[in-house]
Amino acid sequence: MVPLARRNLSAEKARFALSIAGVAFAVLLILIVVSLYRGWSNVGRFYEQLPGEVWVAQPGTSDPFHSTSFLPLADDARLARIHGIAAAAPVYARHIAFTRGGKELDVFAMALDLPASLRATAGRYAPARGRIDIDRVLADQAGVEVGDRLEVLGRSLVVSGIHSGGNSIFQTAYLNADDARAMFGIDDYTNFFLLSLSPGTNLRTAAAAVTRALPGTETHTSAQFATSFANRVNAGFLAVVGVLVGIGFAVGGAVIALTTYTATVERAREFGVLKAIGASGAFLYQVVIRQSLIVGTPGAALGIAVSVAATKLIRDAVPEFITDLRPVDAAGVFAAAVLMAILASYVPARRIERIDPAEVFRA
Amino acid sequence: MSTPLLQVECLSKDFGSGRTLVHAVKDVSFTTEQGEVTLIMGPSGSGKTTLLSMIGGILRPTSGRITIGGIDVTSLDRRELPRVRRELVGFVFQTFNLLESLSALENVEIALNIAGVKGEAARARGRALLVEAGLEDRLSFGAQSLSAGERQRVALARALANEPKLLLADEPTANLDSEAGHDVMELLRTLTETKGHAAVVVSHDPRLHEVADRVLRLADGQLAPPAAVEALSGRP
Questions:
Q1: Which of B46, B49, B51, B58 to mutate to test the interface with A (most CBs of A within 10 A)?
Q2: CA–CA separation, A353 and A270 (whole Å)
Q3: What is the number of other CB atoms lying within 10 angstroms of the CB of residue A77?
Q4: Which of A165, A266, A309, A336 is a good FRET partner for A191, with 20 to 30 A between their CA atoms?
Q5: Which residues of A259-290 are buried (b: 16+ CB within 10 A; e: fewer)?
């Protein structure tokens, strides 16, 4: 088959290159927005990394970040007696605002009173007294490194560790449980209990046993807290993401449509010649669709390649912007770009329909 | 007596209506046999191109009938006309109308692609036609880099690509110098004889008389009587 579509486009090399760049830019915009959205949706996943599977809370708690809860600390003894519960760790959690170098900072602080059996494997969540473990984003914002001191709620705490994480929405810090009780002023209470189950214990059965043993409480799994967190983030950002993705597709579609339309109009006489020598409508539409795909397909592929590089760059340079570029999203955007290219060929195809083959007899 | 390859009967074409009504072609009838070159002469605006467009299925006649190889093309549905143009007729235009972004060979190949012949089969046939047209050393040349005579030869090869029964040429020498024009018409004559199709050439170039088997004269959309044509052409 004669590569007429490619020749028509490559006759104007600069325009062709700019069109591919335009589509690539649109795909880049879409994928960056989608990968940020995916990243934000995942920020609640830190609940699932903590040493425990089931949370005990006061009724009406969405997740520790968005709501608080108070439970008698003495309930830990009743929890420990429930069959299948290996450990019940009191968890203290609240937002703390503090000033560092004249900068107002806010951190979501948690303290896990882990039993000795869990300290060996999950010790990083339970620093020693007078110590604090913070995430990288907070460390950068506060301008501190390991060994520096932070003044928090009237206490001077030594930064004992900096863990990866933190994002543009919130930062996390882990305190010692004794420090937290004193700092938060809740000696006989805890905010939550985080339960570790014995191997083979059914999660639902254990949760039901807890609510029977502690009436007036409710249980959540770590995964439920993560999902609840994601839903709240999504509710806030989904509309914005939808608008930006829509703009991205509109820009990409317009670039393809304009390029294909221009290439078609410029060669209207040649399309008339093809009609005059017997080209069917299907043959001509095929040429126009190919023109669109020749712009759309490499443009989308380039956009994906640039997005992969850009998300890596963002991760390294601006860690608070959490990006999660998934192959399934890239594949979806590529397929959508191909579909967009086909749709964008509608206008030029209609233009071809109106070309009168009799025009070719005019000198 | 065999049926003529082309039969034009009482063909008319009107444009506009009421006060703007123009009778571009009026009651034209003629026939062309296989292997015959029919030259239709006439001044600008005499209806030559309109007549050719109707024969080629590009314009619909107001009345009358056109039969090519026994097929009444005037009775065909509008959607069937592209098939007539790619299978029954081949066009040669005054301005060559090659596709500028393609090479000489690709210009012939695309006519075959349109008819469903693709790949090596199309390339081989295109190559053979261009060799017959004396362009064996111009196959990969871009259409823009060919001389006017070479372009018209490519256009002739393209018109013959799908082995049409009828070749229609609109002022094929108008944009050529006398030598190139002569060469193109000689080629058209030779190919018409060897391939056994028929050719209808419209022109106002009197040099074409020498390659025509028959000359018809069109004036104000009507054919002149045979005697007048013979006197004009100088042929008995």
A1: B58
A2: 13
A3: 9
A4: A165
A5: bbbebbeebebbbbbbbbbbbbeebbbbbbbb
Would you call B99 an interface residue with chain A, using a CB distance cutoff of 8 Å? yes
CA distance A358 to A343: 29
Per-residue pLDDT tens digits for A257-277: 888 888 888 888 999 999 999
Helix axes A268-276, A281-317, angle to 10 degrees: 140
ipTM entry: 0.90
Chain A residues near residue B114 by CB distance under 8 angstroms:
274, 277-280, 283
- Per cent of chain B over pLDDT 70 is 94
CA distance A290 to chain B (A): 15
CA distance B89 to chain A (A): 8
* Beta carbons within 10 angstroms of residue A297's beta carbon: 16
User: Which residue in chain A has the smallest CA separation from B112?
Assistant: A1
Q: How does DSSP classify residue B31?
A: E
What are the DSSP calls for A94-116, one per residue? Answer: EEEEEEETTEEEEEEEEEE---H
Domains along chain B? Answer: 6-98+151-233 (3.40.50.300)
pLDDT score of B231 more than 70: no
Q: Which of A1, A2, A284, A359 to mutate to test the interface with B (most CBs of B within 10 A)?
A: A2
Within 10 angstroms of residue A212's Cβ, the number of other Cβ atoms is 9
> What CA dihedral angle connects A27, A30, A36 and A42, to 10 degrees?
-100
B103 has a chain A CB within 8 A of its CB = no
Among A254-268, A324-338, B5-19, the range scoring the smallest mean pLDDT is A254-268
CB contact under 8 A, B94 and A278: no
Query: For B140-167, how does the pLDDT look when each residue is reduced to its tens digit (9 = 90+)?
Result: 999 999 999 999 999 999 999 999 999 9
CA distances from B15 to A248, A272, B9, B22, B50 (A): 49, 21, 19, 5, 10
Phi-psi region of A140 (alpha: psi -120 to 50; beta: other; left: phi over 0): alpha
pLDDT, tens digit, 9 for 90 and up, residues A216-252: 999 999 999 999 988 888 887 888 888 988 998 888 8
Contact A278 B115 (CB under 8 A): yes
Place of tokens 């097929």: B71
Note whether B139 and B104 are within 8 A (CB): yes
pTM: 0.78
Inter-residue contact A225 to A109 (CB < 8 Å)? no
Grade residue B234 by pLDDT with cuts at 50, 70 and 90.
very low
What are the start-end ranges of the H helices in B42-135?
48-55, 81-87, 104-114, 119-132
Number of H helices, E strands in chain B: 7, 10
DSSP state string for A32-56: HHHHHHHHHHTGGGHHHHSS-SEEE
Average pLDDT, chain B: 90
CA dihedral of residues A273, A279, A284, A285 (deg, nearest 10): 150
Above 80 in pLDDT, residue B227? Answer: no
**Tokens, residue A41:** 């949706």
Are A280 and B58 in contact (CB < 8 Å)? Answer: no
Residues of A in contact with B118 (CB under 8 A): 1
